[in-house]
From TrEMBL:
This is ABC-type cobalt transport system, ATPase component. GO terms for cellular component: ATP-binding cassette (ABC) transporter complex. It comes from the Bacteria. Residues 15-250 form the ABC transporter domain. SMART domains: AAA. It is found in: Cell membrane. Belongs to the ABC transporter superfamily. Its main location: membrane. GO terms for molecular function: ATP binding; ATP hydrolysis activity; ATPase-coupled transmembrane transporter activity. It is a peripheral membrane protein. Keywords: ATP-binding, Cell membrane, Membrane, Nucleotide-binding, Translocase, Transport.
Length: 286
Protein backbone atom coordinates (compact mmCIF):
# COMPACT_ATOMS: atom_id res chain seq x y z
CA UNK A 1 0.00 0.00 0.00
CA UNK A 2 1.33 3.42 -0.94
CA UNK A 3 1.65 5.60 2.13
CA UNK A 4 2.69 9.24 1.94
CA UNK A 5 4.62 10.90 4.71
CA UNK A 6 5.09 14.52 5.67
CA UNK A 7 8.69 15.61 6.23
CA UNK A 8 8.25 15.01 9.96
CA UNK A 9 7.29 11.39 9.17
CA UNK A 10 3.58 11.74 9.90
CA UNK A 11 1.17 9.96 7.53
CA UNK A 12 -0.37 12.18 4.87
CA UNK A 13 -3.92 11.63 3.56
CA UNK A 14 -4.07 10.70 -0.13
CA UNK A 15 -6.45 13.59 -0.75
CA UNK A 16 -6.52 16.84 1.21
CA UNK A 17 -9.06 19.54 0.48
CA UNK A 18 -8.80 22.75 2.46
CA UNK A 19 -11.35 25.57 2.35
CA UNK A 20 -12.07 25.01 -1.34
CA UNK A 21 -14.13 27.60 -3.25
CA UNK A 22 -15.19 27.35 -6.88
CA UNK A 23 -17.61 29.03 -9.28
CA UNK A 24 -17.94 28.67 -13.05
CA UNK A 25 -18.38 32.32 -14.10
CA UNK A 26 -17.16 35.60 -12.61
CA UNK A 27 -20.60 36.68 -11.39
CA UNK A 28 -22.05 33.36 -10.26
CA UNK A 29 -22.59 32.26 -6.68
CA UNK A 30 -20.05 29.85 -5.28
CA UNK A 31 -20.75 26.30 -6.43
CA UNK A 32 -18.24 24.98 -3.92
CA UNK A 33 -18.24 27.18 -0.85
CA UNK A 34 -15.61 26.12 1.65
CA UNK A 35 -15.17 22.35 1.26
CA UNK A 36 -12.87 20.71 3.81
CA UNK A 37 -12.16 17.02 3.44
CA UNK A 38 -9.49 14.37 3.75
CA UNK A 39 -9.46 10.90 2.23
CA UNK A 40 -7.00 8.27 3.41
CA UNK A 41 -5.34 5.69 1.19
CA UNK A 42 -7.52 2.58 0.94
CA UNK A 43 -10.75 4.30 2.04
CA UNK A 44 -14.07 3.67 0.29
CA UNK A 45 -16.01 6.91 0.47
CA UNK A 46 -19.47 7.68 -0.92
CA UNK A 47 -20.56 11.23 -1.72
CA UNK A 48 -24.29 11.95 -1.76
CA UNK A 49 -26.33 15.14 -1.97
CA UNK A 50 -29.32 16.46 -3.87
CA UNK A 51 -29.11 17.74 -7.46
CA UNK A 52 -26.84 20.73 -7.88
CA UNK A 53 -25.15 20.40 -4.49
CA UNK A 54 -21.75 20.42 -6.21
CA UNK A 55 -20.76 16.74 -6.31
CA UNK A 56 -19.65 16.59 -9.95
CA UNK A 57 -17.85 19.90 -9.68
CA UNK A 58 -16.05 18.58 -6.63
CA UNK A 59 -15.13 15.34 -8.46
CA UNK A 60 -13.49 17.36 -11.23
CA UNK A 61 -11.39 19.17 -8.63
CA UNK A 62 -9.77 15.92 -7.55
CA UNK A 63 -7.73 15.34 -10.68
CA UNK A 64 -7.24 18.95 -11.68
CA UNK A 65 -9.91 19.06 -14.42
CA UNK A 66 -10.99 22.13 -12.47
CA UNK A 67 -8.74 24.08 -10.12
CA UNK A 68 -9.75 26.01 -6.99
CA UNK A 69 -10.57 29.71 -7.16
CA UNK A 70 -9.68 29.77 -3.47
CA UNK A 71 -8.32 27.12 -1.15
CA UNK A 72 -6.25 24.03 -1.80
CA UNK A 73 -6.68 20.54 -3.26
CA UNK A 74 -3.74 18.17 -2.83
CA UNK A 75 -3.30 14.61 -4.11
CA UNK A 76 -0.46 12.69 -2.45
CA UNK A 77 0.92 16.05 -1.39
CA UNK A 78 0.80 17.50 -4.95
CA UNK A 79 -1.24 20.66 -5.35
CA UNK A 80 -3.68 20.74 -8.30
CA UNK A 81 -3.06 24.46 -8.85
CA UNK A 82 0.58 23.70 -9.63
CA UNK A 83 0.70 23.13 -13.42
CA UNK A 84 3.87 21.08 -13.14
CA UNK A 85 2.17 18.54 -10.90
CA UNK A 86 -0.91 17.97 -13.04
CA UNK A 87 0.56 14.97 -14.85
CA UNK A 88 1.45 13.27 -11.55
CA UNK A 89 -2.02 14.04 -10.21
CA UNK A 90 -3.85 12.66 -13.27
CA UNK A 91 -1.79 9.48 -13.01
CA UNK A 92 -2.84 9.03 -9.41
CA UNK A 93 -6.54 9.84 -9.73
CA UNK A 94 -8.60 8.05 -12.38
CA UNK A 95 -12.09 9.32 -13.26
CA UNK A 96 -15.09 7.19 -14.22
CA UNK A 97 -18.24 8.90 -15.47
CA UNK A 98 -21.91 8.03 -15.91
CA UNK A 99 -22.07 7.02 -19.53
CA UNK A 100 -19.79 4.11 -20.44
CA UNK A 101 -20.37 4.75 -24.17
CA UNK A 102 -18.55 8.07 -23.87
CA UNK A 103 -15.58 6.40 -22.24
CA UNK A 104 -14.94 3.55 -24.69
CA UNK A 105 -12.80 4.32 -27.74
CA UNK A 106 -11.79 1.07 -29.48
CA UNK A 107 -13.63 -1.73 -31.28
CA UNK A 108 -12.17 -4.55 -29.21
CA UNK A 109 -12.30 -4.66 -25.41
CA UNK A 110 -8.58 -5.33 -24.86
CA UNK A 111 -7.60 -2.59 -27.30
CA UNK A 112 -9.82 -0.21 -25.42
CA UNK A 113 -8.18 -1.06 -22.10
CA UNK A 114 -4.74 -0.74 -23.72
CA UNK A 115 -5.46 2.80 -24.90
CA UNK A 116 -4.45 4.53 -21.65
CA UNK A 117 -1.19 2.62 -21.03
CA UNK A 118 -0.27 3.05 -24.71
CA UNK A 119 -0.58 6.78 -24.22
CA UNK A 120 1.73 6.50 -21.23
CA UNK A 121 4.33 5.17 -23.70
CA UNK A 122 4.81 1.83 -21.93
CA UNK A 123 6.44 -1.21 -23.56
CA UNK A 124 4.08 -3.62 -25.29
CA UNK A 125 4.77 -6.50 -22.88
CA UNK A 126 4.00 -4.24 -19.91
CA UNK A 127 0.83 -3.05 -21.61
CA UNK A 128 -0.27 -6.63 -22.26
CA UNK A 129 0.22 -7.56 -18.60
CA UNK A 130 -1.61 -4.47 -17.39
CA UNK A 131 -4.56 -5.07 -19.73
CA UNK A 132 -4.88 -8.66 -18.55
CA UNK A 133 -4.65 -7.67 -14.88
CA UNK A 134 -7.13 -4.83 -15.28
CA UNK A 135 -9.69 -6.99 -17.10
CA UNK A 136 -9.29 -9.72 -14.49
CA UNK A 137 -9.78 -7.17 -11.69
CA UNK A 138 -13.19 -6.19 -13.11
CA UNK A 139 -14.19 -9.76 -14.04
CA UNK A 140 -14.16 -9.11 -17.80
CA UNK A 141 -11.13 -11.18 -18.92
CA UNK A 142 -13.24 -13.62 -20.91
CA UNK A 143 -14.66 -10.75 -22.96
CA UNK A 144 -11.25 -9.43 -24.00
CA UNK A 145 -11.80 -10.14 -27.72
CA UNK A 146 -15.41 -8.89 -27.75
CA UNK A 147 -16.68 -5.66 -29.30
CA UNK A 148 -17.62 -3.18 -26.54
CA UNK A 149 -20.84 -2.16 -28.32
CA UNK A 150 -22.17 -5.73 -27.94
CA UNK A 151 -21.75 -5.67 -24.16
CA UNK A 152 -24.40 -4.76 -21.59
CA UNK A 153 -24.22 -1.36 -19.89
CA UNK A 154 -22.74 -2.86 -16.73
CA UNK A 155 -20.12 -4.79 -18.70
CA UNK A 156 -19.20 -1.65 -20.64
CA UNK A 157 -18.81 0.28 -17.43
CA UNK A 158 -16.52 -2.44 -16.03
CA UNK A 159 -14.42 -2.24 -19.22
CA UNK A 160 -14.26 1.54 -18.79
CA UNK A 161 -13.08 1.00 -15.20
CA UNK A 162 -10.46 -1.51 -16.46
CA UNK A 163 -9.20 1.14 -18.89
CA UNK A 164 -8.55 3.45 -15.96
CA UNK A 165 -7.06 0.68 -13.80
CA UNK A 166 -4.57 -0.17 -16.56
CA UNK A 167 -2.97 3.21 -15.88
CA UNK A 168 -2.50 2.09 -12.27
CA UNK A 169 -3.98 5.04 -10.39
CA UNK A 170 -4.08 5.09 -6.60
CA UNK A 171 -7.59 6.40 -6.46
CA UNK A 172 -10.75 6.14 -8.53
CA UNK A 173 -13.31 8.93 -8.52
CA UNK A 174 -16.59 7.59 -9.90
CA UNK A 175 -19.34 10.09 -10.72
CA UNK A 176 -22.61 8.13 -10.72
CA UNK A 177 -21.10 5.13 -12.53
CA UNK A 178 -24.28 3.08 -12.12
CA UNK A 179 -26.85 5.77 -13.03
CA UNK A 180 -27.43 4.43 -16.55
CA UNK A 181 -27.31 0.73 -15.69
CA UNK A 182 -29.97 -1.90 -15.08
CA UNK A 183 -30.13 -3.54 -11.61
CA UNK A 184 -27.84 -6.43 -12.62
CA UNK A 185 -25.28 -4.06 -14.13
CA UNK A 186 -25.42 -1.89 -11.00
CA UNK A 187 -24.90 -4.87 -8.75
CA UNK A 188 -21.92 -6.10 -10.76
CA UNK A 189 -20.28 -2.68 -10.85
CA UNK A 190 -20.76 -2.36 -7.06
CA UNK A 191 -19.25 -5.77 -6.49
CA UNK A 192 -16.31 -4.79 -8.73
CA UNK A 193 -15.79 -1.68 -6.60
CA UNK A 194 -15.70 -3.80 -3.44
CA UNK A 195 -13.17 -6.16 -5.02
CA UNK A 196 -10.93 -3.27 -6.06
CA UNK A 197 -11.08 -1.76 -2.61
CA UNK A 198 -10.52 -5.00 -0.74
CA UNK A 199 -8.12 -6.87 -3.03
CA UNK A 200 -6.10 -4.02 -4.53
CA UNK A 201 -6.50 -1.52 -1.69
CA UNK A 202 -7.77 0.99 -4.23
CA UNK A 203 -9.03 4.24 -2.74
CA UNK A 204 -12.56 4.88 -4.01
CA UNK A 205 -14.64 8.04 -4.06
CA UNK A 206 -18.08 7.06 -5.28
CA UNK A 207 -20.70 9.70 -6.06
CA UNK A 208 -24.16 8.19 -6.14
CA UNK A 209 -27.86 8.97 -5.92
CA UNK A 210 -28.60 5.44 -4.72
CA UNK A 211 -28.60 5.28 -0.94
CA UNK A 212 -28.47 1.49 -1.16
CA UNK A 213 -25.04 1.97 -2.77
CA UNK A 214 -23.91 4.72 -0.43
CA UNK A 215 -24.36 2.49 2.63
CA UNK A 216 -21.80 0.10 1.19
CA UNK A 217 -18.98 2.65 1.70
CA UNK A 218 -16.81 3.02 4.81
CA UNK A 219 -17.79 6.67 5.09
CA UNK A 220 -20.57 8.79 3.61
CA UNK A 221 -20.09 12.46 2.83
CA UNK A 222 -23.25 14.51 2.43
CA UNK A 223 -22.87 17.61 0.28
CA UNK A 224 -25.31 20.49 0.48
CA UNK A 225 -25.01 23.91 -1.17
CA UNK A 226 -21.37 23.40 -2.04
CA UNK A 227 -20.27 22.30 1.41
CA UNK A 228 -19.73 19.10 3.33
CA UNK A 229 -22.89 19.14 5.43
CA UNK A 230 -22.40 15.85 7.21
CA UNK A 231 -20.03 12.91 7.22
CA UNK A 232 -19.77 9.64 9.05
CA UNK A 233 -20.29 5.90 8.91
CA UNK A 234 -23.48 4.90 7.06
CA UNK A 235 -25.30 4.07 10.30
CA UNK A 236 -24.33 7.45 11.77
CA UNK A 237 -25.67 9.28 8.73
CA UNK A 238 -28.94 7.42 8.26
CA UNK A 239 -29.60 7.36 11.99
CA UNK A 240 -30.20 11.14 11.79
CA UNK A 241 -33.63 11.16 10.17
CA UNK A 242 -34.08 14.92 10.62
CA UNK A 243 -30.85 15.62 8.73
CA UNK A 244 -31.77 13.18 5.98
CA UNK A 245 -34.93 15.20 5.47
CA UNK A 246 -33.12 18.54 5.74
CA UNK A 247 -30.65 17.59 2.98
CA UNK A 248 -33.33 16.08 0.74
CA UNK A 249 -31.93 12.57 0.84
CA UNK A 250 -33.79 9.28 0.74
CA UNK A 251 -33.40 6.50 3.23
CA UNK A 252 -31.89 3.29 1.88
CA UNK A 253 -34.81 1.05 0.82
CA UNK A 254 -34.00 -1.54 3.45
CA UNK A 255 -34.05 1.10 6.21
CA UNK A 256 -37.28 2.61 4.89
CA UNK A 257 -38.90 -0.81 4.97
CA UNK A 258 -37.72 -1.45 8.54
CA UNK A 259 -38.99 1.96 9.68
CA UNK A 260 -42.40 1.34 8.07
CA UNK A 261 -42.70 -2.15 9.53
CA UNK A 262 -41.95 -0.73 12.95
CA UNK A 263 -44.56 2.01 12.46
CA UNK A 264 -47.04 -0.71 11.52
CA UNK A 265 -46.42 -2.41 14.84
CA UNK A 266 -43.86 -5.04 13.86
CA UNK A 267 -41.31 -5.64 16.63
CA UNK A 268 -38.20 -4.76 14.64
CA UNK A 269 -35.27 -2.29 14.90
CA UNK A 270 -35.52 0.88 12.86
CA UNK A 271 -31.76 1.23 12.41
CA UNK A 272 -31.30 -1.47 9.79
CA UNK A 273 -28.92 -0.76 6.90
CA UNK A 274 -28.28 -4.22 5.49
CA UNK A 275 -30.67 -6.62 3.80
CA UNK A 276 -29.12 -9.56 5.71
CA UNK A 277 -29.91 -7.94 9.03
CA UNK A 278 -33.50 -7.23 8.04
CA UNK A 279 -33.93 -10.84 6.97
CA UNK A 280 -32.41 -12.04 10.27
CA UNK A 281 -34.69 -9.85 12.34
CA UNK A 282 -37.76 -10.93 10.36
CA UNK A 283 -36.81 -14.59 10.79
CA UNK A 284 -36.59 -14.08 14.56
CA UNK A 285 -40.14 -12.71 14.76
CA UNK A 286 -42.62 -15.02 16.45
N1 LIG B 1 -20.18 23.84 -16.70
C1 LIG B 1 -20.93 24.56 -15.88
N2 LIG B 1 -21.12 25.88 -16.08
C2 LIG B 1 -21.88 26.63 -15.24
N3 LIG B 1 -22.50 26.15 -14.15
C3 LIG B 1 -22.35 24.83 -13.90
C4 LIG B 1 -21.58 23.97 -14.74
N4 LIG B 1 -21.61 22.71 -14.22
C5 LIG B 1 -22.38 22.79 -13.12
N5 LIG B 1 -22.83 24.04 -12.92
C6 LIG B 1 -23.68 24.50 -11.80
O1 LIG B 1 -23.00 24.20 -10.60
C7 LIG B 1 -23.90 23.73 -9.60
C8 LIG B 1 -23.43 22.37 -9.10
O2 LIG B 1 -23.49 21.45 -10.17
P1 LIG B 1 -22.91 19.99 -10.07
O3 LIG B 1 -23.07 19.37 -11.42
O4 LIG B 1 -21.55 20.03 -9.49
O5 LIG B 1 -23.91 19.34 -9.01
P2 LIG B 1 -24.20 17.80 -8.70
O6 LIG B 1 -24.28 17.70 -7.22
O7 LIG B 1 -23.24 16.94 -9.41
O8 LIG B 1 -25.66 17.60 -9.30
P3 LIG B 1 -26.36 16.28 -9.87
O9 LIG B 1 -26.80 15.49 -8.68
O10 LIG B 1 -27.52 16.80 -10.65
O11 LIG B 1 -25.37 15.54 -10.72
C9 LIG B 1 -25.27 23.70 -10.25
O12 LIG B 1 -25.94 24.88 -9.88
C10 LIG B 1 -24.97 23.70 -11.72
O13 LIG B 1 -25.98 24.33 -12.46
MG1 LIG C 1 -23.43 15.41 -10.81
Amino acid sequence: MAVFLYQDGEMMPLIEVDDLYYKYGQEDDWVLAGVDLEVETGEFVAIVGHNGSGKSTFAKMLNGLLVPKQGVVKVAGLETKDKEEIWGIRQRVGMVFQNPDNQLVANIVEEDVAFGPENLGLESQVIKTRVKEALTAVGMEEFRRHAPHNLSGGQKQRVAIAGILAMQPQCLVLDEPTAMLDPVGRKNVMSTLHDLNQNLDMTLIHITHFMSEAIQADRIIVMDQGKVALQGRPAEIFGQLDKIKEYNLDLPQVTELAVRLKQAGVDISSDIYEVDRLVNELCLLK
